[in-house]
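Below is how a single chain appears once it has passed through the pipeline. First comes the sequence as given, then the structure the pipeline wrote out for it. We keep one example in the README because the format questions we get most often are answered faster by looking than by reading.
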Amino acid sequence: MRSTLFHIPTSLDLGGGSVPLFGWGLGLAVWAVVAVAGLAWAASRQGLAPAIRAIGMPLVVVAALLLWVLPALDDGAGVPIRGYGVMLLVAAAAGTWLSIVRGRRMGFDADTILALGTEVFLWGLVGARLFYVLEYHDQFFGPGIPLGESLARVVNIAAGGLVVFGSLPTAAVAAWRFAARRGLSLARLADCVAPGLLVGLAIGRVGCFLNGCCFGGPCTLPWAVRFPAGTGPAAAHPAADGGSVPIHPAQLYAALDAALLAVLAVAFTPWTRRDGEVFALVLTLHPISRILLEIIRVDEPPALGTPLSISQLLSLALLALAAALWWWIGRQPLRPATPGL
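Resulting structure:
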């Protein structure tokens, strides 16, 4: 486990004085130059209005991060760079890369996949964070916590705290609106990006391991891990030295599961005969594996008066949705085989 990788200083000492990096500082000025140059380049290729629609939102989001979010994260030593946040960025990049490669073989250009990936990632992040905040609201809005600190905790995503299932509604709506705006097949887009989403999930779960969240229960297996004092696993399963007893590395199990599902989805692609089949396969198998993994994980209590966790209950709902999707796909016309990847 390594929650914090390093710190970024919030100002630069230039001899005659210090210059702030974040807020109304050097970082925002550099980003403004990059944003203008990037927008001009994109406008020269496709026109100003399409360029704004394609990259305007990411540019604004990064500016907001530099202006408000990063200064709020300063812990006195600088802005901490969390292992969880870094793995989220790596996950987004890896998933987008695979989706671009698949998109070229399925009739989608790289710009389309990048624009889709940006919207889905950002809105999925919002949904995943909101779900986590609602599920563990006492950590954010408990007694004695000032409103400013509560809001800072909510936006501090890099410190950990996302629920994958929470991202599904917001990401799905974002994908649907994207496909509708561009006149694209939503089912074919879903097939294109499904393995990339799983690759992103696999890498993101490594971030969970670095952060110490989503942990498993005690075990005596040779690959059992111990977490240090002050972490969630140590609080839930304390050992005499203040750390945790040996527990299941449930995060790595989940990472391996998502990686194997990604390989299966890619291998299944050439065998499909209807749009949506790759996504339907993922929507069928992932909830099943999640139900099983939740038996090992012990960080979520039973929900709604049942012996099942909220993730297991949502998995059952997704299985019902998958059955409906398979029924709908079966009523669609056949098409030629899809190229590999």
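The chain has one domain: 82-330.

See the next section for the split statistics.
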